[in-house]
């Protein structure tokens, strides 16, 4: 890494300090992946489109744009692609989340970028991937996880599958796999001088997350139906129970010694033998449920505090930051009046932090043009719009 690339940097900005990332604005998993790279210290420049993306929240509250800088470029204008290519020439990574072929039609596809910068890691974030029968189709998290079998595993057996927000597909199967791919490709590029395209499809990543379940299915230890297995709520000592005040406790007392402590503290040790008798699991579940209904969530939380029974209260998003353990670890932080998850994971030598709040569209154009030596970025567009449909 050249001295010029690190000039002006302050210590403690994270292990990716000095890495330059161009993010072509989108929604969902692409911005989250770019946020993670920014949290790790990369200089992420978000290229916003005039008018912003669809489904966007108030930019001042969009935490996925923290630690980034923003410029506005109209890629449909005649000189729009050249402005982005100027950034790509000076970048280590580019992230885009268009449907297959759109970036190419806009003039900022992998071939265009690699012609200017052969070392560039070009990250592509889609739901269906760059090829296959559904590659050109619209979609969202719920459809992607539905086809992989993951959605069908979640929920009670006598109810529709439960929707896990968009955490499982967009962020776990999408963003995190894109970041892993980018970091691997960046390592390769620095060793060889050659960049490449990273095709991160949510269907691929979500399917990959089910690897252990497929192994259990093959071994005959997992039934291919909902609510009938050890880890999907089918087991009475691995699930959630309603308390007397309408809240919930989560139970994960799988191992025998944890289970024994759980039953003792719950106050029904006489039911403990039912653990190993599947024919008595309905009886056990009813006994556990009735017992939890006898006290409030906070009362049960106090009962199981400092134990190895593997029981925890089910907290809301607003409650979570105040839990003593999470508060002690500063798992959540506040920046600019917004309570939000702190960067993760943690590093002993290159600590991370929320350095800046959400980047507002276009506010950093002059600074990026200067810092990246891309003067064309800050000059007004002089040409009429091209008709390019993404």
What does this structure look like?
This protein is α/β, with parallel strands linked by helices. Helix content is 34%, strand content 14%. The strands form three sheets. A six-stranded parallel beta sheet has the order 3-2-1-4-5-6, sandwiched between helices. A three-stranded antiparallel beta sheet has the order 7-8-9, covered by helices on one side. It has a two-stranded antiparallel ribbon with strand order 10-11. α2 (29-39) links the parallel β1 and β2 (43-48). α3 (80-89) packs across α5, α6 (141-147) crosses α8 (202-209) and α7 crosses α8. The two termini are 36 Å apart. Mean pLDDT is 93; it is low at 1-12.
* DSSP helix fraction: 25-40%
Number of helices: 14
Structural class: alpha/beta
Beta strand %: 5-15%
Low-confidence stretches: 1-12
The termini sit apart by: 36 Å
Q: Taking Cα atoms only, what radius of gyration do you get, to the nearest Å? A: 25 Å
Global mean pLDDT? 93
**Spatial ordering of strands, largest sheet:** 3-2-1-4-5-6
- Broad shape: elongated
SSE pattern, N- to C-terminal:
HEHEEHEHHEHHEHHEEHHHEHEEH
Number of strands: 11
Question: What structural keywords apply?
Answer:
three-stranded antiparallel sheet; elongated
Annotate the secondary structure layout.
Blueprint: H1 3-6, E1 20-24, H2 29-39, E2 43-48, E3 68-72, H3 80-89, E4 93-96, H4 102-106, H5 110-116, E5 121-126, H6 141-147, H7 167-192, E6 196-201, H8 202-209, H9 211-219, E7 238-242, E8 248-252, H10 256-266, H11 281-292, H12 297-304, E9 311-313, H13 324-329, E10 332-335, E11 338-341, H14 365-371
Parallel strand pairs: 1-2, 1-4, 2-3, 4-5, 5-6
Antiparallel strand pairs: 7-8, 8-9, 10-11
Helix pairs in contact: 2-7, 3-5, 6-7, 6-8, 7-8
